[in-house]
Amino acid sequence: MTGQRTISGWRVWTVLTIGIGISAWTSDGPGDVHGVEEHLGAHLPPTLSMTDEHDRPVTITQVSRDGKPILLVPAYYRCPQLCGLVLEATLHAAQAIDWVPGRDYHLLTVSFDSEDRPAQALQKQASVLAGAAGDPRFSEQTWPFLTCDASTSEALLGALGEHVQRQEDGTLAHPAIAVVLTPDGAISRYLYGITMRPLDLKLALAEASAGRSGQSLDRVLLYCYRYDPATRRYGLFITRFLQLGGLIIALGGGLGIALLVRRVRVQVQP
Q1: Given Cys at both, which of 79, 146, 258, 268 links 83, Cβ 3.0 to 4.6 Å?
Q2: What is the mean pLDDT of the chain?
Q3: Where are the chain's structural domains?
């Protein structure tokens, strides 16, 4: 029992430490996020040249040429804690929705540390995919882990508005974010923190895809929910919800009246 209490204590201490760090890195204001200057609507440079975990060249244009939205997770592969938590949260949220990477959207992780190499990308990829517990939707093909040189990293971070600071011990201080891009590489939404709600991910992807790859129910959800910059989450838009509810009631009432009139007509016919 003493050993279990000690382990639990360390877990609590770790979570509190990371939480304090994230709180210090992000503010409460919707347009004032320390470490991130949101560039909504801006396009990533199409010539960004990266390398996958098998040392093959990749560009954003190659990823986005089939008209699907992109979930981009900026990270670095030697990160001691934060990046692992963001990647784990991304995996859990992606597993909880019915959108399939590779089929409905593209999922990729890019290291902003130019010192990362394909071998480290491959190692981190294997570690993250091991947490998928055999889920066939997540594989090397559907979730590539990319690296880039210093100039590309600088261009990527500049386009995203993400500020990264190298510390004296060589680690990188950075915000915990994932970024949703439109099919043509424009920044559509930022998702913050070491937890990711499946609803936020699904609606952000539906929003980014402009309904092209979303299912009809996703479009209804997107109509009833809107993004709240203050909480950085999607919340129920009461006015639209009531409008939709009123429309459903009106259609149901109209259908009921039509059926009733038709029934009366049948009964009065000789």
Answers
A1: 79
A2: 79
A3: 2-195, 237-270
